[in-house]
Amino acid sequence: MSKVILITGASSGFGALAARRLADAGHTVYAAMRATEARNAPQVEAARAYAAEKSVDLRTVELDVLSQESADAAIDAVLADAGRIDVVIHNAGHMVFGPTEAFTPEQFASLYDVNVLGTQRVNRAALPHLRSRGEALLLWIGSSSARGGTPPYLAPYFAAKAAMDSVAVSYAAELSRYGIETTILVPGAFTKGTSHFAHVGAPADEPRAADYAAGPYKGVPEQVMARLASLEPPDADVADVARAIVEIVDTPHGKRPFRVHVDPSHDGADVVFAVGDRVRREMFRNIGLEDLLAPRVPA
């Protein structure tokens, strides 16, 4: 059945790929992004052209996850246009790279704002509607960095993605009795095929970063980036993430997996997450809330 889907951070990367795949699969897709009349105007036009060329229902909507007003307006616009929302995909995010000490607290806060608080703003805008429907999906695009191998120099990003994962896990139990299903998609470190690594942010404290670059950690940044890339097999394809998103959305309600891994480098996150998710299930059984582990399915 065709669904109405909102996906954040859809100007490029996983978001843009997934928006097109979902539209190709017959869904009505709202590719949400900020600055639709400025910096991202070319992406808006590209989406419009794709929709026309492929005869699919791919639309765009202004949504800056750093603004509650913008999130509220985006949800209102989609509801006014389509009449409902069936799926919200939390995809917006940003990454930085450099020695942890050289990032200011404000930079840490900024990463947390985009990757964590942004999901909360969108949820607060969308959940009253989703809860009223009795059947919906929240799909969170996480990161293997939250539990897998964690190379140095990515601490602000890793911390933010781990926090987002914790928020997603808690929301899953708090929304299941409303019939809202949760899936967390965990991509690995795709270093090619998106702008994620190309647009990586740098530490604001350049003198401290220079201390690391000239000291005993000289060459470590280059080694991290080169070795991460070398772990990817030649056939690693970022489109696999978009295909996984379509498969999750198209799975019948109540049958979707709680967590899906797409990691060609196999950094071990699947092993660690499996333990944590098992312990979570055991805890819910022990406290008599096992029903919260799965969404209520309408009769």
Description:
The chain has 299 residues and is an alpha/beta fold. The protein has helices at 13-24, 41-54, 68-82, 105-133, 155-175, 206-214, 220-231, 239-250, 269-286; strands at residues 4-7, 28-33, 58-62, 87-90, 136-141, 180-187, 259-262. A 7-stranded parallel beta sheet has the order 3-2-1-4-5-6-7, with helices on both faces. Helix 4 (105-133) runs parallel beside helix 5 (155-175). The model has no long low-confidence stretch (mean pLDDT 94).
How are the secondary structure elements laid out?
Elements: E1 4-7, H1 13-24, E2 28-33, H2 41-54, E3 58-62, H3 68-82, E4 87-90, H4 105-133, E5 136-141, H5 155-175, E6 180-187, H6 206-214, H7 220-231, H8 239-250, E7 259-262, H9 269-286
Parallel strand pairs: 1-2, 1-4, 2-3, 4-5, 5-6, 6-7
Could you write a compact summary of the structure shown?
The protein has helices spanning 13-24, 41-54, 68-82, 105-133, 155-175, 206-214, 220-231, 239-250, 269-286; strands at residues 4-7, 28-33, 58-62, 87-90, 136-141, 180-187, 259-262. With 299 residues, the chain is an alpha/beta fold.
The poorly predicted ranges are none
What is the string of helix and strand elements? EHEHEHEHEHEHHHEH
Strand content: 5-15%
- First CA to last CA: what distance? 17 Å
In spatial order, strands of the major sheet run 3-2-1-4-5-6-7
Mean pLDDT level: 94
Q: Report the count of strand segments.
A: 7
Shape: globular
Category by helix and strand content: alpha/beta
**Largest sheet descriptor:** 7 strands, parallel
Number of helices: 9
Kindly provide the radius of gyration, computed on alpha-carbon positions and rounded to a whole number of angstroms: 19 Å
Q: Helix amount, in percent? A: 40-55%
